[in-house]
Design a protein that fits this description.
The chain is α+β, with helices and mostly antiparallel strands. The protein has three domains: 186 residues, 2-Layer Sandwich (BirA Bifunctional Protein, domain 2), CATH 3.30.930.10; 129 residues, Alpha-Beta Complex (YbaK protein), CATH 3.90.960.10; 98 residues, Anticodon-binding domain (Rossmann fold, 3-Layer(aba) Sandwich), CATH 3.40.50.800. The protein is 28% helix and 27% strand. The chain has 16 helices and 31 strands. Strands 3, 7, 8, 9, 10, 11, 12, 21 and 24 form a nine-stranded mixed sheet that branches. Helix 3 packs antiparallel against helix 7 and helix 3 packs across helix 12.
Length: 589
């Protein structure tokens, strides 16, 4: 009866394999010869040109069939590795009520990045940029005993952040796909073990996605907690920078990276006030006085919660604002604006210095401890002090790690040197501790019947960002070169002169054989020129290309081309499936 209804309705039988629909004549993958005008980096340019993406609005994209296939491959890897570590998948709402964010105190603190709206009753909601509040409330309301723990829940879904300047395609988008997981444990040791498990899972995920990556110590930012690692894909276009040591393996985000300080000692001379008319910047003063910039004490004036604070670093260094936020314990600070100099006339703009600087906290970078023969502002117009000795002429309130590391600095952990490279952050993990459980009342009852707060961890991967990062590491001037495990298909079967019956029959036979071997195959069954077919194939970046062309006509053999290396081999059609299956076997497929 059902079969009869299917036949009458023209519905095909369900045993047809999905792979058999991968015919390029029917594939919705409109390729472009020219790059889009707003594409600044390779991944943006090639994903659009290759028919994987289309722009809807700034920072918002449609994913076309080939793009979806890559996303599903990445998501599949993530699911397998998360499940292997015992995590369980859930789906949480994107639309989040204000009340939950008020419980954690983040509704106002999160700022303009959260997209907010009201429902018809005037109630406030946010489009989820992250899900700490939602998951904490879910667990809080549904567990009660130590027997319910440990627990690790994850989801893969859309996130929204109202970026000030969306750019670089998927690397800084306003709507994106993310995997976020949250662990719940009885105590701190349990939290640390969950953290280690997620670190292991992430290492396997990025290995399987075929990227060169590095885990670095990181700032916890608005998410919170005390311990965090970022997973960086090294790429020249990365907006983050990482400092690392090849000797001992130390690695950290440049905003937090430590470095070993070496004693600072400028030219020996007595403390003296000298005239420096109109010389305000480090470059101007060092040139005028003939001293190296590192022998100047740069005195930066910050307004911290309405009060002035002086921050001292060597003249050739920059103060790290993430480091400052950590030591100040607040994000409510900024460098003096012109209005601040007017409001605090006792600090002379361009000539402010730590000697005799009264009524203000003075924070100095560790490199200035014991520094001698230095130059600094004299707090008098057109004058500086030379021969300054820290500890003798002034004493900071605290010596702290404030200055940013740079390439070539001594490693803080060994005798090696730091290298600095650009990276794309594709994941971050956090030990949240009690940050959300205390504020939101997420507790459990222990073996003694006592109520205790849950220790939490948080673990995110930017799925769409990872897709772009893969392309940044795997492309050439002609197109993408997908790693095999995340590619939209394993084989691109490209018969030339497809309109010829004999060539068409040979291609269809080989297509069927490859499918029967369990391979994912895209058949270019279009009646197009060889140039058009090869150009599209290069853009698609499918790892293996099988060409039925002149070689087949002369010998009955096909040409196997490897997209990543450019290697070519002439083989029989019967060998083709085995060659690709062998490669799949090497990655565990």
């Amino acid at each position: 009866m059902v079969r009869g209804l299917r036949e009458k309705a023209g519905i095909p039988r369900p045993e047809v394999k999905m792979e058999e629909k991968m015919r390029q004549s029917r594939l919705f993958a409109p390729t472009l010869k020219e790059s889009p005008a707003d594409a600044e980096i390779a991944s943006h340019r090639l994903l659009v040109r290759g028919g994987f993406l289309r722009r809807v609005a700034s920072g918002i994209y449609d994913f076309l069939p080939l793009g979806v296939r890559v996303l599903r491959k990445i998501e599949g890897i993530i699911r397998e590795e998360m499940n292997r570590e015992g995590a369980q998948e859930v789906v949480l709402p994107i639309l989040q009520p204000r009340e939950l964010w008020e419980e954690s105190g983040r509704w106002s603190r999160y700022g303009d990045e959260m997209m907010r709206l009201k429902d018809r009753a005037g109630r406030d909601f946010g489009l989820g940029p992250t899900h700490e509040e939602m998951i904490t409330a879910l667990v809080r309301d549904n567990i009660s005993s130590y027997r319910d723990l440990p627990l690790n829940l994850y989801q893969i879904g859309a996130k929204f952040r109202d970026e000030v300047r969306p750019r670089f395609g998927l690397l800084r988008a306003r709507e994106f796909i993310m995997k976020d997981a949250y662990s719940f444990d009885r105590d701190e040791e349990g939290m640390r073990e969950s953290y280690r498990a997620m670190y292991r899972a992430y290492s396997r995920i990025f290995d399987r996605c075929g990227v060169r990556w590095m885990a670095v110590e990181a700032d916890t930012g608005l998410i919170g907690g005390d311990v965090s690692h970022e997973f960086m894909v090294l790429a020249g276009v990365g907006e983050d920078r990482v400092a690392y040591c090849e000797g001992c393996g130390y690695a950290a985000n440049i905003n937090l990276a430590e470095f070993r300080r070496e004693p600072l000692s400028g030219p020996e001379r007595p403390l003296e006030k000298v005239s420096t008319p109109g010389q305000k910047t480090v470059e101007e003063v060092s040139g005028f006085l003939g001293v190296e910039p590192r022998h100047l004490i740069k005195c930066l004036m910050y307004l911290v919660e309405g009060k002035p604070v002086a921050v001292l670093v060597p003249g050739d260094r920059e103060a790290g604002e993430v480091k400052l936020e950590r030591v100040l314990g607040t994000s409510e600070f900024r460098l003096f604006h012109q209005g601040d100099w007017d409001n605090f006339p006792q600090y002379v703009q361009g000539f402010v210095g730590p000697v005799g600087l009264d009524g203000v906290d003075v924070l100095a970078d560790l490199s200035l401890r014991g520094a001698r023969g230095m130059v600094c502002g004299s707090n008098e117009e057109d004058h500086h002090l030379v021969g300054v000795e820290v500890g003798r002429d002034f004493q900071p309130n605290r010596f702290l790690d404030l200055a940013l590391a740079r390439d070539g600095d001594p490693c803080p952990r060994c005798e090696g040197v730091l290298r600095v490279a650009a990276g794309i952050e594709v994941g971050q993990i956090f030990q949240l501790g009690l940050k959300y459980s205390l504020s939101m009342g997420c507790t459990y009852t222990d073996e003694k019947g006592e109520e205790r707060p849950v220790h939490m961890g948080c673990y995110g991967i930017g799925v769409t960002r990872l897709m772009a990062a893969i392309v940044e590491q795997h492309h050439d001037e002609r197109g993408i070169r997908w790693p095999l495990e995340v590619a939209p298909a394993h084989v691109h079967l490209v018969p030339l002169n497809y309109e010829k019956e004999e060539r068409r029959k040979a291609a269809e036979d080989l297509y069927r054989q490859l499918l029967e071997e369990g391979l994912e195959v895209l058949l270019d069954d279009r009646e197009e020129s060889a140039g058009v077919k090869f150009a599209d194939s290069d853009l698609f970046g499918i790892p293996y290309r099988l060409v039925l062309g002149r070689v087949y006509e002369e010998s009955g053999k096909v040409e196997l081309q490897v997209r990543s290396t450019g290697e070519r081999a002439v083989i029989s059609p019967e060998e083709a499936a085995g060659q690709v299956r062998q490669a799949l076997g090497r990655i565990g497929a």
